[in-house]
Automatic annotation (TrEMBL):
GO terms for molecular function: DNA binding. InterPro entries: DNA-bd_dom_put_sf (IPR009061), HTH_17 (IPR041657), SinI_DNA-bd (IPR010093), WH-like_DNA-bd_sf (IPR036388). This is Excisionase family DNA binding domain. It comes from the Bacteria. It comes from Alteromonas mediterranea 615.
Length: 63
């Protein structure tokens, strides 16, 4: 089990997203993260699990 903590920039780079997009997803509760002193932080294992959940939900929404 890895307790590696990532910053918003690191998560955005890892997911190949703009930082604004990663921030919005986190603020909306769609991307699992938490704030430390006003800055977003993410557990790498939570991000990896979120990716797997996104792969499983593809095509299930009507959008």
């Amino acid at each position: 089990m890895s307790d590696e903590i990532l910053t918003l920039k690191e998560v955005a780079d890892y997911l190949k997203l703009a930082e604004k997009t990663a921030y919005r997803l986190a603020a909306e509760g769609k991307l699992p993260g938490f704030k430390v002193g006003g800055s977003w932080r993410f557990k790498k294992e939570d991000v990896l699990q979120w990716i797997e959940e996104q792969k499983g939900s593809k095509g299930k929404k009507g959008k």
